[in-house]
Amino acid sequence: MTVPGEQALRTELDQLKSVDRPRVIADIATAREHGDLKENAEYHAAREQQGFIEGRIQELEGKLGNCQVIDILSIPHSGKVIFGTTVTILNVETEEEMTYQIVGDDEADLKEKKISINSPIARGLIGKEEGDIVAITTPGGMAEFEIDQVQHI
User: Fold this and answer.
1) 16: domain CATH number?
2) Rounded distance, CA 59 to CA 105, Å?
């Protein structure tokens, strides 16, 4: 995962532990004061929310404990497409230019032009260099792309 990806997960984890978890615990205590727990919708909703929060905390701690963080800025620029680089490619047929950053699965967001290392486009680009023409099978069929620029940003 990239450094910003790790920071985003750590921020979410901190939010869950320091803000959301105490709020839900207080909600449960308040709901208990209302009496009969069998028919107390507030209590059941708060317990369900607590379960989601605890599950997400475990998931984030597991991911952060097992991840390998790669700081692309510390790797010398070689013109080769590697994890974390930002790649500008040109569709040879349509001459459409696209720029993507290759990131981990948890960071992928097409709206932000971040694609997963496991996506067909990223898998086709990894290991190639600026100027190479690459044939990639996309959902729309086979397409050829020229690697225009590789950046470490």
Assistant:
1) 1.10.287.180
2) 14
